Amino acid sequence: MSFFQQLKLESAPEAQTLLTIPQLVDGLAGRISRETYVGYLSQAYHHVKHTTSLMKAAKSRLDDSHETFRKALDEYAAEEEGHEEWILNDIRACGGDAEAVRTSTPLLATEMMVAFAYDYINRINPMGFFGMVFVLEGTSVMLASRGASAVQQSLGLPPSAFSYLTSHGALDQDHMVFFAKLMDQVTSPDDQAAIVHVAKRMFILFGNVFRAIPHTQEAAHAA
To answer: What is the pLDDT of residues 9-41, one digit of tens each?
Structure first.
């Protein structure tokens, strides 16, 4: 079994738990309110704005024996730069206050997810960061392919309100092919264990971000 397949298998229980969260279930079916969608975008802004910083932090702590992964992080960082601004543009297209989101404080769940990533990179093993990449990119592909069009149709929002989801999803489909090949070059048992551990934790932490987004069944099914 390749390491990428092993990663998917070992994190599958946590991934399945993510798929039971009401905010995500209803989002994929297009049964959410505009407020819930803007709430999702707001928290996405607060973690996406750290993406390139996390990648640079991970790269800075990798030694020369990890040059392949350092180069991969450079490629990722170049493509991820500025994606938080896409999110703010989507919030504006929804009629939300993007500048208020920019200056707001993230929800506790979002703050804890980001803090865990920085801590693991700096204190334990920077290779573990690829576990976060696995969770967030895989989830964004699912949200883009199944959720964006459903939410757009149910809420009657313009395509410009979904640039982050649709564009990021298309990018991440390519990224996941690249990611699978990259993971199959991870041969160190310690690095493999770190990536699996972070992926399992990230499915839980990212799930908590969705759980924290204000959402009611009444609002979700009103559209």
So the answer is: 999 999 999 999 999 999 999 999 999 999 999
| Structural domains counted in the chain | 1
Residue 211: both structure tokens together: 């759980």
Residue indicated by tokens 């690249």: 178
Q: Which residues contact 85 (CB under 8 A, 6 or more apart)?
A: none
Residues of the chain by 3-state class (helix, strand, coil), percent to 5: 80, 0, 20
Domain with 11, as residue range(s), is 3-220
* 115 Cβ neighbours under 8 A, 6+ residues apart: none
* CATH number of the domain residue 102 falls in: 1.20.910.10
* Neighbouring C-beta atoms of residue 75, cutoff 10 Å: 13
Rounded Cα distance, 143 and 138, in Å: 9
What digits encode the pLDDT tens for the residues 44-78? 999 999 999 999 999 999 999 999 999 999 999 99
**How far is CA 142 from each of CA 61, 139, 165, 169, 184, rounded to the nearest angstrom?**
31, 5, 10, 8, 22
Q: Is 82 left (phi over 0), alpha (psi -120 to 50) or beta?
A: left
